[in-house]
């Protein structure tokens, strides 16, 4: 009987302590941190962590009204830009096999529309990891400079707050 009462007191005390803990709080703008890159043969997996204070990361599939309409910059909410080492400098790479970076050449960008992650409940703060598969190739197979590459990553929330711009480590092929 005394053991049962002691258990009830311990459980009740634990619940009181847990309810007194402050919920996590983060800035309302997404904050990113690069975690890793894994080669999956020709494709690759890029992993980064994020925090967001108001939990408005991601878009619903039917969220197509402006500014999230097709053709708008904000249709996608994750942009990963591809860089190659050329003559000792990092350059946004293009699909030109000679590595010519004229202003008319399209740079290589992986654009993603990450799904809605808004948590249920009062505390909307989000913390997590995102894994992105870069396919069909994680490198430019026709480039003369794709032996040393890296990526920049930008995430945009539904309030159109842009995250910090992060870079992967150097990836040697």
Note the topology.
Elements: H1 2-20, E1 31-40, E2 43-52, E3 78-86, E4 89-92, E5 109-112, E6 126-134, E7 148-155, E8 166-167, E9 171-172
Antiparallel strand pairs: 1-2, 2-6, 3-4, 3-5, 3-7, 7-8, 7-9
What does this 3D model show about the protein?
The chain has one helix at 2-20; strands at residues 31-40, 43-52, 78-86, 89-92, 109-112, 126-134, 148-155, 166-167, 171-172. The protein is globular and about 50 Å long. The protein has one domain (25-172): Immunoglobulin-like, CATH 2.60.40. A hairpin with a 2-residue loop joins β1 and β2 (43-52). Strands 3, 4, 5, 7, 8 and 9 form a 6-stranded antiparallel sheet that branches. Mean pLDDT is 86; it is low at 11-18. Helix content is 11%, strand content 34%.
Task: Characterize this entry briefly.
The chain is mainly beta and 173 residues long. 11% of the residues lie in helices and 34% in strands. Strands 3, 4, 5, 7, 8 and 9 form a six-stranded antiparallel beta sheet that branches. A three-stranded antiparallel beta sheet has the order 1-2-6, with no helix packed on it.
Find the CATH superfamily: Immunoglobulins
Q: Tally of extended strands?
A: 9
| Percent helix range | 10-25%
Task: Note the gap between the termini.
Answer: 68 Å
**Major beta-sheet overview:** 6 strands, antiparallel
- Percent of sequence in beta strands: 25-35%
Counted by DSSP, the helix tally is 1
CATH architecture: Sandwich
| Average of per-residue pLDDT values | 86
């Amino acid at each position: 009987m005394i053991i049962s009462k002691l258990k009830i007191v311990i459980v009740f005390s634990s619940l009181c302590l847990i309810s007194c803990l402050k919920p996590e709080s983060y800035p309302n703008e997404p904050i990113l941190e690069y975690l890793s890159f894994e080669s999956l043969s020709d494709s690759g997996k890029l992993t980064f962590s994020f925090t967001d204070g108001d939990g408005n990361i991601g878009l619903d599939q039917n969220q197509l009204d402006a500014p999230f309409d097709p053709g708008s910059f904000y249709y996608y909410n994750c942009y990963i830009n591809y860089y190659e080492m050329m003559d000792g400098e990092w350059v946004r790479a293009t699909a030109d096999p000679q590595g010519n970076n004229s202003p008319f050449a399209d740079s290589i960008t992986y654009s993603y529309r990450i799904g809605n992650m808004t948590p249920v409940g009062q505390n909307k703060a989000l913390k997590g990891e995102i894994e992105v598969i870069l396919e069909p190739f994680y490198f430019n197979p026709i480039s003369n400079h794709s032996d040393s590459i890296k990526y920049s990553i930008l995430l945009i929330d539904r309030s159109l707050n842009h995250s910090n711009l992060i870079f992967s480590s150097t990836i040697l092929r």
